[in-house]
Amino acid sequence: MSSVTRRARRCRTAGTPEKADLPGNRKKKGSAGGRPVDFDPERYRRRNTVERCFQKIKTWRGLATRYDKTPESHEAGLHLRGSIMWLKLLTHMIRTSNSS
Q1: Residue 21 belongs to domain spanning
Q2: More exposed terminus of the chain, fewer Cβ within 10 Å: N or C?
Q3: Cβ neighbours of residue 25 under 8 Å, at least 6 residues apart?
Q4: Is pLDDT of 43 > 60?
Q5: pLDDT recorded at residue 13
Q6: Cα 12 → chain centroid
């Protein structure tokens, strides 16, 4: 029997806990408790946007591995990559507004 099946069977037999107990249980577990009690969906959405932006920047091999020897050339690469990302966004916005 798989662990997923065991977990599902355990949930069915135990019943679902009251919603008021969930934050307390997560707090007791500490860092192993999953989503924090003071979870803010809007803050998570903004953080996710920033992390995705960093991943897009890292798609350039030179920026991801820091092959540039000087800080100036690395910064120039960051500016260039940011400009390209901005232009792609701008052209996408123009295309979608023209198709409407």
Answers
A1: 3-33
A2: C
A3: 17, 33
A4: yes
A5: 62
A6: 32
